[in-house]
């Protein structure tokens, strides 16, 4: 079976209750649930949570919550891989063998149906362990600077001070929307950022981390602008 797992614990601190906070007219998590439903990629769409209120909202919008996530997988330090592995193990124990799993973040309102579909296609065609959303940095990372303890600046790579931007290698980062993976890779705890993973490239204007109130405000502006453009 193909499984979508939306991790959504209840303990967000910088933006309290952010997984179900209203974003442009819907609970944030609803955007991810609806994208998964409309993609037609999944036999089951579930939310992995430790929170009763998130459970209720998820079910109202059509996702299943077949178990409550254990406390040891619900703290600030738990990574994505153990959460997805737990979900796969749960389904396997029920006699429902999982083949492909897509971890879809609850705070990904910019995720598009066609990107989820493209991720599955890339996973299959490349034979990779994972295929996940990435986007390019807007500025050459080789020319990044740090602020020192003396309140001065220095380059991370001073050898590139005189290198033209167009001569520097383009760099990419995790877009934080979804991670398709083979169930075997999740179960083995294989690293996602590795040569065994394939990129699903997204344009920068559809990527926004939402970790702080400032991020949230920027994301709503971007989302509304895109809605207006699309009529």
Automatic annotation (TrEMBL):
The keyword Transferase applies. Signal peptide: none annotated. Transmembrane segments: none annotated. It comes from Pseudomonas zhanjiangensis. This is Pseudaminic acid cytidylyltransferase. Its EC number is 2.7.7.81. PANTHER family: HAD SUPERFAMILY MEMBERS CMAS AND KDSC, N-ACYLNEURAMINATE CYTIDYLYLTRANSFERASE-RELATED. Keywords: Nucleotidyltransferase, Transferase. GO terms for molecular function: nucleotidyltransferase activity. It is an enzyme of class 2 (transferase).
């Amino acid at each position: 079976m193909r499984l979508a797992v939306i991790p959504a614990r209840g303990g967000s601190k910088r933006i309290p209750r952010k997984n179900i906070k209203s974003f442009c007219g819907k609970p944030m998590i609803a955007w991810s649930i609806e994208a998964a439903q409309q993609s037609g990629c999944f036999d089951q769409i579930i939310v992995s949570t430790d929170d009763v209120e998130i459970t209720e909202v998820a079910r109202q919008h059509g996702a299943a919550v077949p178990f409550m996530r254990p406390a040891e997988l619900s703290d600030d330090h738990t990574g994505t891989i153990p959460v997805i592995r737990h979900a796969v193990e749960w389904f396997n124990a029920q006699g429902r063998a999982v083949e492909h799993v897509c971890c879809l973040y609850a705070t990904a309102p910019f995720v598009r149906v066609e990107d989820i579909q493209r991720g599955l296609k890339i996973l299959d065609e490349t034979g990779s362990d994972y295929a996940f959303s990435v986007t390019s940095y807007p500025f050459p990372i080789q020319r990044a600077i740090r602020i020192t303890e003396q309140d001065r600046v220095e380059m991370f790579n001073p050898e590139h001070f005189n290198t033209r931007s167009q001569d520097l290698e383009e760099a990419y980062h995790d877009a934080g929307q979804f991670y398709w993976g083979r169930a075997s890779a999740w179960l083995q705890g294989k690293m996602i950022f590795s040569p065994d993973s394939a990129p699903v490239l997204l344009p920068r204007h559809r990527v926004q981390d939402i970790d702080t109130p400032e991020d949230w405000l920027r994301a709503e502006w971007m989302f509304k602008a895109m809605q207006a453009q699309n009529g």
